[in-house]
Amino acid sequence: MPHAIRFSAYGNTDVLTLAEVPLPEPGEGQVRVRVKAAGVNPLDWKIRKGFLSGGVPLAAPTGTGTELSGVIDALGPGVTSRRVGQAVFGRSADRGAAAAFDLAAADELVGKPDWLSFEQAAALPVAAETAYRALRELGVGAGQSLLIHAAAGGVGLLAAQVARTWGVTVIGTASERNHAFLREIGVTPVAYGQGLADRVRAAAPQGVDAVLDGSGQGVLPASIELTGSPDKVLTIADLAAAEHGVRFSAPSGPLTGGLDELLPLLENGQVRMPIDSVFPLAKTADAHQHSEGGHLRGKIVITVED
Ligand SMILES: NC(=O)c1ccc[n+]([C@@H]2O[C@H](COP(=O)([O-])OP(=O)(O)OC[C@H]3O[C@@H](n4cnc5c(N)ncnc54)[C@H](OP(=O)(O)O)[C@@H]3O)[C@@H](O)[C@H]2O)c1
Question: Pairing mode, if any, of strands 247-248 and 187-190?
Answer without folding.
Answer: unpaired
